[in-house]
Write a structure and sequence with these properties.
This protein has two domains: 111 residues, Nucleic acid-binding proteins (OB fold (Dihydrolipoamide Acetyltransferase, E2P), Beta Barrel); 318 residues, 2-Layer Sandwich (BirA Bifunctional Protein, domain 2), CATH 3.30.930.10. Helix content is 30%, strand content 24%. It is built from 13 helices and 16 strands. α4 crosses α6 and α4 crosses α13. Bound molecules: 4-amino-1,4-dioxobutan-2-aminium adenosine-5'-monophosphate and magnesium ion (MG).
Length: 460
């Protein structure tokens, strides 16, 4: 019978269909390693259904083409038929005693991924082959589970999933980091495809807000693009963002959703991606404390400090920062790291930022200087989430846009929401890749994306 390696593991654990010892099974997969003596040999086979391999034992007097099988190279694809043997070993609870091994696709000896450990930098140059390594199998499995888990969290909590557009006429964050979309060489946007300047979205927020004023709780989840020329381990030019938006919800309610969402997703992978997390914990995470860290996050309460308190603490610390701290500045990575690793010692909500370093749509606090915004900082990554209560007053938002000399024309519709049944509402943006870095312990954003896009990097 045709089986998968995952099916075999489930069977020996007593989950799902039970496949008795001695059953003739057929597997298809890729050879991870192959070693042999003149009498018998072992293939570590992976078929992608399980993080773990299946050991194939082949013996000279049991298969026809022993010499050929002994020569099979790492990376080739094969079909194996043989008897299932239950070994009761802790690491390999079963193996397959081969009766037949057929080569499906040979692998040239130039295959760059041999049995030794390769650096992540080296593997970044072969993004089409690296999915076959343990590290990337773990990362991309977790990426898939995390994405589905986020959808599950929002669905269970009554959120409606909205697909916001990729092509847009406005720069949501107002930071001027848009990639232009054009069919012309001359930059004459009036004559261009849309008859105006168009760009790739930097955030789905503005487009999802109108749906929150209909369904109450909504979210968008898709790719976003930023032409920000920062070559850091934390910035990508294309990344995925989850953006919930909730009506009748203030900043406090917003933060509750952020915390519940993260705990839900982390609990899910702790339960369902155990093999992958153990591998990452032991071989990728810097201090081998990944699982302990994730378990702590699930059981702890996130702390909250205001921007102003953080400034005071940073100054009081006496720490020599490259960028000196003063009220009104936008924090750099070094400050974020200090705040969550030294002051809060875990995930921390930083709230009430000066209005001048935040986006135009944020709700002005009664002090007239700060806005009801919140960044969630986590150790090792820095800013994981950025969110805020939105300004719901037509007059205040309109005045703020004028103050910032923003083009009203492209955003008149956004102001309309404040005219027609507007309510207190809030939302946030979670960078999927930043979350993946946090939960996998992978230190560079380029290694949690299938094909990363960063400045001067578009080979694949
Ligand atoms: O803080 P940001 O810019 O917020 C917004 O875009 C809001 N419109 C969100 C909202 O309220 N709906 O981005 C949100 C998150 C950041 O906290 C970070 O995790 C991620 O998106 N992010 C990036 N991730 C990878 N590469 C980049 N260049 C990123 N820029 C932001
Ligand atoms: Mg931000």
């Amino acid at each position: 019978m045709k089986v998968t390696i995952d099916g075999l593991y489930k069977s020996v654990r007593g989950e799902g269909e039970v496949i008795p010892a001695g059953t003739e099974v057929t597997l298809e997969g890729w050879v991870r390693t192959n070693r042999s003596s003149n009498k018998f040999g072992f293939i570590a086979l992976n078929d992608g259904t399980s993080f773990n391999n299946c050991q194939i034992v082949y013996e000279e007097d049991k298969i026809k083409n022993y010499a050929d099988v002994a020569k099979l190279l790492t990376g080739c694809s094969v079909k194996v038929t043989g008897a299932l043997v239950i070994t009761e070993g802790a690491k390999q609870p079963f193996e397959v005693n081969a009766a037949e091994v057929t080569l499906l696709g040979d692998c040239d000896s130039s295959y760059p991924m041999q049995k030794k450990r390769h650096s992540l930098e080296f593997l970044r140059e072969i993004p089409h082959l690296r999915p076959r390594t343990n590290t990337f199998m773990a990362v991309f499995k977790i990426r898939s589970v995390v994405s589905q888990s986020l959808h599950e969290f929002f669905r269970k909590n009554g959120f409606v999933y909205i697909h916001t557009p990729i092509i847009t006429g406005n720069d949501a964050e107002g930071a001027g980091e848009c990639f232009t979309v054009t069919t012309r060489e001359d930059g004459n946007y009036q004559e261009d495809f849309f008859g105006k300047h168009a760009c790739l979205t930097v955030s789905g927020q503005l487009h999802v807000e109108p749906f929150a004023l209909s369904f109450g709780k909504v979210y968008t989840f898709g790719p976003t693009f930023r032409a920000e020329n920062s070559n850091t381990p934390y910035h990508a030019s294309e990344f995925w963002m989850i953006e919930p938006e909730m009506a009748f919800c203030d900043l406090k309610g917003d933060m509750k959703v952020m915390e519940a969402m993260l705990k839900y997703v982390i609990s899910d992978i702790l339960e369902n991606c155990r093999d992958e997390l153990e591998f990452l914990n032991n071989f990728v995470a810097e201090k081998k404390d990944l699982i302990a860290k994730l378990e702590r996050v699930v059981s702890s309460d996130f702390k909250t400090i205001t921007y102003t308190e953080a400034v005071e603490e940073l100054i009081k610390s006496g720490e020599k920062f490259e960028n000196p701290v003063s009220w009104g500045m936008d924090f750099n990575k070094e400050h974020e790291v200090y705040i969550c690793e030294k002051i809060a010692k875990g995930p921390v909500f930083l709230i009430d930022f000066p209005k001048d370093i935040k986006a135009f749509y944020m709700k002005l606090n009664p002090d007239g200087k700060t806005v009801a915004a919140c960044d969630l900082l986590v150790p090792g990554v820095g800013e994981l989430i950025g969110g805020s209560q939105r300004e719901e007053s037509y007059e205040k938002l309109s005045a703020r846009m004028d103050e910032l000399k923003m083009e009203r024309e492209t955003l008149e519709w956004y102001l309309d929401l404040r005219k027609y049944g507007g309510v207190v509402h809030s939302g946030f943006g979670l960078g999927l890749e930043r979350l993946l870095m946090y939960v996998t312990g992978v230190a560079n954003i380029r290694d949690v994306q299938a094909y990363s896009r960063t400045p001067k990097n578009l080979k694949f």
